[in-house]
């Protein structure tokens, strides 16, 4: 079971499943001592959380896990990405540093001040980013040990209209965007996702690497271990919820069915 009081939760699946559903951006929780370092007042922070949180993605992953023929494992971030963003590079490789949104954000989705840019990010990286990365790496290695491979399916959402922080917001915004990596996303994994989501949203409703590209792989395996495959699922929020931070609708069930089909397909390979 997920314990929201912990920074992250590794939820058990079928013993021999290679699949790890990763939910990094679904929480709004910010510990009190971290909140004290954020410049926004309470109302502005709530608005920012509406925009930046991938709302209901943890529920989506849980529903898909119940529907899948063999339950995938799940790794869920129980803290807001305003604490740290576990999917960013923690160094100068991260392109989002250009808009103040590296591993520790200093700017909001509207490019307004979130933290003083001179703040030292090291305490937050040490307290939250590095333990998360270590645990996620161990979760991936456990799937390799059990199944001979690990398949990371990264579960995200994005707003219907682009936000000012987006570096590539001028591209198309399909109902479902599949983010890929040239090393870690084999054609058969991409094809399985195209089938599962295309059957429900139409194949014209599936995009590749727009408006967001890439997928998450732990740095220990990134670019070097082909036993680790990965795909990012980015879902346009109007397909399943009231924007910007409102309740989920019936589209969540459709998405859970598609995600469960994808899990089943890659588990059987």
Summarize the entry for a quick read:
With 269 residues, the chain is an alpha/beta fold. Helices cover 32% and strands 14% of the residues.
Main β sheet profile: 7 strands, mixed
- Secondary-structure-derived class: alpha/beta
Which overall shape is indicated by the principal axes computed on the Cα atoms? Answer: globular
Sheet with most strands: strand arrangement: 1-3-2-4-7-5-6
Tally of strands: 7
Low-confidence stretches: none
Return the average pLDDT rounded to an integer: 96
Estimate percent helicity.
25-40%
Ends distance: 27 Å
Our count of helices gives: 6
User: Which range does the strand content fall in?
Assistant: 5-15%
What does this structure look like?
The chain is about 30% helix and about 15% strand. The chain has six helices and seven strands, in the order E-E-H-H-H-E-H-E-E-H-E-E-H. It has a seven-stranded mixed sheet with strand order 1-3-2-4-7-5-6. Helix 3 (about 55-65) packs across helix 6 and helix 5 runs antiparallel to helix 6 (about 250-269). It starts with 7 loop residues before the first strand and ends with a helix.
Give the SSE layout.
Layout: E1 8-11, E2 19-23, H1 32-35, H2 42-52, H3 57-67, E3 73-77, H4 122-147, E4 150-158, E5 176-179, H5 187-201, E6 206-208, E7 228-236, H6 251-268
């Amino acid at each position: 079971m997920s314990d929201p009081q912990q920074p992250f939760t590794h939820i058990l699946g079928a013993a021999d499943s290679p699949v790890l559903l990763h939910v990094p951006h679904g929480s709004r929780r910010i510990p009190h001592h971290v909140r004290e370092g954020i410049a926004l007042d309470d109302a502005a922070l709530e608005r920012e959380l509406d925009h930046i949180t991938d709302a209901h993605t943890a529920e989506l992953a849980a529903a898909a896990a119940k529907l899948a023929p063999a339950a995938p494992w799940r790794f869920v971030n129980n803290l807001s990405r305003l604490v740290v963003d576990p999917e960013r590079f923690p160094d100068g490789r991260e392109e989002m540093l250009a808009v103040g949104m590296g591993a520790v954000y200093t700017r909001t989705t509207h490019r307004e001040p979130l933290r003083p840019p001179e703040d030292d990010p090291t305490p937050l990286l040490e307290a939250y980013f590095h333990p998360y990365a270590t645990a996620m790496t161990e979760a991936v290695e456990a799937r390799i040990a059990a199944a001979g491979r690990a398949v990371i399916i990264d579960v995200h959402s994005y707003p219907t209209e682009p936000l000012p922080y987006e570096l590539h917001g001028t591209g198309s915004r399909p109902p479902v965007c599949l983010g890929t990596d040239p090393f870690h996303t084999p054609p058969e994994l991409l094809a399985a996702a195209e089938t599962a989501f295309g059957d429900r949203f139409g194949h014209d409703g599936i995009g590749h690497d727009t408006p967001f590209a890439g997928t998450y792989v732990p740095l220990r395996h990134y670019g070097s271990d082909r036993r680790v495959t990965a795909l990012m699922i980015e879902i346009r929020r109007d397909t399943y919820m009231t924007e910007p931070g409102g309740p989920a609708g019936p589209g969540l069930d459709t998405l859970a069915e598609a995600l469960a089909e994808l899990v089943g397909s890659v588990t059987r390979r």
